[in-house]
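[Automated response] Your request has been received and processed.

Submitted sequence:
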Amino acid sequence: MFDYLKFTIGTFLFGGVCATLYMGGHWLWLGFPGVIIAWLLLDPLVEESRQPEYQHVWAISLIAQGTLVVMIFSVFTLAWISSPGDLLGMGALIQSSTGFDAIAAREASTWFDLVGAALALGLIFGNIGFLGAHEFAHQTGNPTVLFSGRWMLALTAGYSFEVGHNWHHAHVGDRTDDPASSRRGDSLYYWLGHNMFRQVSKAWQTEGERLKRRGKPFVSLDNQILRPSLRIAVVVAALYGVGGWYTLAFFAVACAVCKLMVEALTYYSHYGMIRVPGQRVEPRHAWNANAALGNWLMFNIGRHSNHHHDGTIPFWDLKPGLPGEAPVNYPYFAGGLMAFIPPLFHKLMSPRLLKWDEEFASAEEREIAHEQNASSGVAALMAAAEGRQDSARAPLPAE
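Generated structure:
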């Protein structure tokens, strides 16, 4: 039973964060640091290296799709705490059922407190909601799951992700022409500045080429970037109707934090990986982490090797321990946060990269890795490249 229920932990986390938002005032700042501290402390405690056999797939799929429901409730909560009146009678319901006057508590909240609420929601949107949408977007043969994933993306303003990820990154990941794969030595901030907009541009280019091959007009409902944009427009219009620009400002903060977290996780999951163009994606081409709590919350994102090896596998069937997969010491949540501190990130990841070069890379990949190490600007990587050059220049011993 626990093998099913463990994927509901994210639902309870959403609920807990939302509960703090109805408490008003400075309580709105509790969720953001609270989630970070608790997640960082608990995530490394247990690893899960086994793969259960799920007999009731419908149940686990239903549990996962419940994330859409709690995301809708979370956005509703943000709208309620940042708008006048009692939207859908939520305040009256809380007071009648618990005796707590949520409306009076809301009056004590300042704009600064609402920023804390937006940061908390953005954090869990990026690390749970968006990752659920990421998994569902791959299930193109299941209309119900795909519907849930697309609306989860709409609630986080992810308008180009489905095209950019499914049709571009999934095929060119770890190559130098993939804007979603980070090169050795790139800091998260450099990578964001140079590649975030490249990802969007590539998505538009990829979709334009797809429509052209099918003989479809670019501006049409067949466009898989314009359709998500319309769904986002529905969300934005609803929030504007409830709380105007004030509510939309905090929704924008939540979406921005979500985007930053997603990009940090993307940066971490492929940092420094090398793949030769034309060669297939292998388990070694993504970092793998078996931290149990993080995988339960993040839809097994730590089993990234299996995901890229076969993107059609649903998250609950992603397997750990594939031959040749590259393990990383740090859970995905910790790795994503670590990326915001580049000196720490490079210090901790350099040994993992050098081990990957030695134990996992092919001969061709090792040559590309050597070039990137030499130009990385990271002392440990450059020293390894220099040592390799010195070894290659050393004279052969006399016979």
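Summary generated for your ticket: Residues 168-175 have pLDDT under 50 and may be disordered. Residues 2-341 form one domain.
If you did not submit this request, please reply to this message.
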